[in-house]
Design a protein that fits this description.
single chain, 284 residues, alpha+beta, 7-stranded mixed beta sheet, 3-stranded antiparallel beta sheet, 26% helix, 19% strand, globular, binds fe (ii) ion
Length: 284
């Protein structure tokens, strides 16, 4: 039987979205961002996307090869777009799914990365990967470490390189290679999103279009005791963070991760205090 990716409307009960996510490792949420929010986010990031250099230097040759030279990147989104920081990163549906997926393994989850990946014509298929391999040193099996999503900020089509995913691969042994017929492509309208576990195999497909840039927003969260891909506190410094709601500040990593109730300890203190309090008191 051909694999499938379930497609559910954003107003479906979170339990239904979670059930699909648990079973298949990925689910398409149609209309996650309403048209107004989609428009605001696109307007707020548009100049930064246009100015981004597809041939920008990367951390090392492996990352440079992974991204290629036909993709424009904008990260640090919470400092560039208030709609991202307050409405997309704090989207109630995404946070409810984070509650279900990540809270069993932590006291509080945080933003891992908000990253626009604007793939131009000729951008080649990404290496098929698991996002969770960022934390390769964590012994497996492990609790769910990451919940990720790719939000379509423009239409995702088969031709312009909609994300390829392998449903069910979150349950595979990590050395099992997918066959071509096991992939499903997350073709979706602008404002829709594919939400997936960090252990699911996936990758962007080749953009075969002549002139269409495929603008996607990778938004992912991790358990709050893990080092995040982007250093979100530096990317969104106190001068900006203090203008955001506390929930956003906590997602950006300003709060301590408090595992005292589980007989654990704290991560992320400053001078033995919770940076959220310092921010409120004007001391950061
Ligand atoms: Fe990925």
């Amino acid at each position: 039987m051909a694999p499938e990716l379930r497609r559910l409307a954003a107003d479906k009960p979170v339990a239904d979205l979670f059930a699909a996510l648990e079973e298949d490792g990925a689910v398409v949420i149609e209309g996650l961002l309403d048209p107004g929010l989609l428009r605001r986010v696109n307007a707020e990031v548009s100049d930064a996307v246009t100015a981004a250099d597809p041939a920008m230097p990367h951390l090392n040759p492996a990352i440079a090869g992974f991204f290629g030279t036909r993709t424009r990147h904008v990260a640090g989104l919470a400092s560039k777009s208030r709609a991202f920081a307050t409405e997309v990163m704090c989207h109630p549906t995404l946070l409810a799914l984070c509650d279900a997926v990540l809270l069993p393994g932590c006291a509080e989850y945080v933003l891992n990365l908000g990253h626009i990946i604007d793939r131009g014509p000729g951008a080649e298929q990404q290496l098929i990967h698991r996002d969770e391999l960022t934390w390769v040193h964590v012994p497996r099996p492990a609790p769910q470490l990451q919940l990720a999503s790719m939000i379509a900020l423009s239409e995702f089509t088969a031709e312009n390189g909609a994300t390829l995913l392998v449903p069910g691969s979150h349950r595979w042994p990590w050395d099992r290679q997918p066959r071509p017929e096991e992939f499903v492509q997350a073709v979706m309208t602008a404002g829709s999103a594919v939400v997936y576990l960090g252990s699911v195999l996936h990758g962007a497909a080749t953009n075969r279009s002549a002139d269409v840039w495929r603008r996607g927003l990778h938004l992912s969260y991790v358990v709050g005791w893990l080092r995040t891909e982007e250093n979100n506190v530096l990317a969104t410094p106190p001068a900006i963070a203090r203008t955001l709601p506390e929930r956003a500040q906590r997602l950006l990593g300003y709060g301590v991760h408090d595992a005292i109730a589980k007989l654990g300890g704290y991560c992320g203190m400053v001078g033995l205090r919770d940076p959220i309090d310092l921010l409120r008191e004007g001391k950061l």
